[in-house]
């Protein structure tokens, strides 16, 4: 981000193609590196935070992210008004780079407990980890079901892009009404985060996922029949409410079902399953749009996929009541 910001500020106008290359590379590289480090970051949190407080940690983190998102939106407005065009975007990228530096500085101040016991020096190679995946799936019934849940939970992304269009079409409102719907969704998001954190701490991540899945199925079915402004406001509040559970339940349960000595490998496998689910739902969305599918067809696919997730999570034993993950 720092390099992209400097390039945008220093390169003259006829070097815009080179500047654009840095701009496109910055988010890709940070996302790629972040994906590589995500399982290790999750393990560090699991080692530093008691299991009974993981859900509330995710909730607090999401709340802080939402607040920073609001502040970032205001900053973008001010900066681009002050420095429009390439210079303004350069300033924004520099701000992003400095925030990453602040995050790194804070991370260096974290004292990581020496838990679990140290693994053998050097650890396993990536190809060895991949070759062990079938064996893990064979012996760990809970992991198999949870991977199915992790993939099919991405079904929420089938219906989300269409909800706003459906609301405007049903109500005959202008596009400016989307701001009102977004406000209702954000109110639901912040409310759900607090409840999801409390439920996860008290009962575990499984119950949060059950509520998330059943709730989104209700939102999907409700969107077929709601025709009033107040109804759509409530529906968007519910969509934000249950979507907030996505950052609490699955992440808590993923950490808790992973054996301590193999936690990084388990979290990496679960992360790959989620990535596959996102790609699959994106591809299905493209196919449905290209085929001219009606909203009812999209809703039917969403209910089918989320119903599969609900069926799967009911077969995942809650780790706090059933510690053993072996079949």
Overview features:
327 residues, mainly alpha, 14 helices
Describe the structure in your own words.
The termini are far apart. α2 (about 15-50) packs across α13, α8 (about 155-170) packs antiparallel against α11 and α9 (about 175-205) packs parallel to α11 (about 230-245). The mean pLDDT is about 80. The longest helix has about 35 residues, at about 15-50. With about 325 residues, the chain is an all-alpha fold. Helices cover about 75% and strands about 0% of the residues. It has 14 helices and no strands. The chain is globular.
Classify the helix fraction into a percent range: over 70%
* SSE arrangement, N to C: HHHHHHHHHHHHHH
**Estimated structural class:** mainly alpha
What is the terminal separation in angstroms? 46 Å
What is the average per-residue confidence, as pLDDT, rounded to a whole number? 82
Basic shape:
globular
Work out the number of β strands.
0
Work out the helix count: 14
Structure summarized in a few sentences:
With 327 residues, the chain is mainly α. It contains 14 helices and no strands.
Write the layout of secondary structure elements.
Elements: H1 2-10, H2 16-48, H3 54-82, H4 86-108, H5 126-131, H6 133-139, H7 141-152, H8 156-171, H9 177-203, H10 205-222, H11 229-243, H12 249-257, H13 263-290, H14 295-313
Helix pairs in contact: 1-2, 1-4, 2-13, 3-4, 3-9, 7-13, 7-14, 8-11, 8-14, 9-10, 9-11, 10-11, 10-12, 10-14
């Amino acid at each position: 981000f720092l390099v992209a910001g400097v390039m945008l500020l220093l390169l003259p106008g006829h070097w815009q193609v080179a500047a654009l290359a840095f701009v496109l590379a910055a988010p890709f590289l940070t996302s790629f590196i972040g994906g590589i480090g995500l399982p290790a970051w999750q393990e560090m949190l699991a080692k530093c935070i008691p299991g009974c407080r993981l859900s509330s940690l995710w909730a607090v983190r999401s709340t802080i992210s939402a607040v920073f998102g609001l502040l970032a939106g205001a900053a973008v407005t001010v900066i681009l008004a002050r420095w429009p065009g390439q210079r303004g975007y350069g300033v924004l990228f520099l701000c992003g780079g400095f925030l990453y530096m602040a995050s790194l500085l804070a991370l260096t101040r974290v004292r990581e407990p020496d838990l679990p016991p140290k693994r053998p020096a050097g650890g396993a190679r990536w190809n060895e980890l991949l070759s062990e995946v079938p064996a893990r799936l064979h012996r760990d019934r809970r992991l198999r079901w949870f991977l199915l849940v992790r993939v099919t939970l991405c079904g929420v992304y089938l219906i989300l892009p269409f909800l706003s269009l459906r609301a405007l079409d049903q109500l005959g409102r202008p596009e400016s009404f989307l701001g009102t719907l977004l406000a209702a969704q954000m109110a639901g998001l912040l409310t759900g985060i607090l409840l999801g954190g409390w439920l996860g701490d008290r009962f575990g991540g499984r119950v949060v996922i059950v509520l998330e899945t059943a709730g989104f199925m209700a939102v999907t079915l409700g969107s077929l029949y709601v025709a009033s402004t107040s109804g759509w406001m409530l529906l968007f509040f519910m969509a934000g409410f249950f979507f907030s559970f996505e950052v609490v339940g699955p992440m808590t349960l993923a950490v808790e079902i992973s054996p301590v000595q193999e936690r990084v490998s388990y979290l990496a496998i679960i992360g790959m399953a989620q990535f596959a689910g996102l790609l699959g739902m994106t591809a299905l969305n493209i196919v449905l749009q290209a085929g001219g599918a009606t909203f009812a067809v999209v809703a039917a696919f969403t209910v089918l996929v989320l119903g599969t997730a609900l069926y799967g999570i009911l077969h995942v034993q809650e780790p706090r009541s059933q510690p053993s993950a072996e079949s």
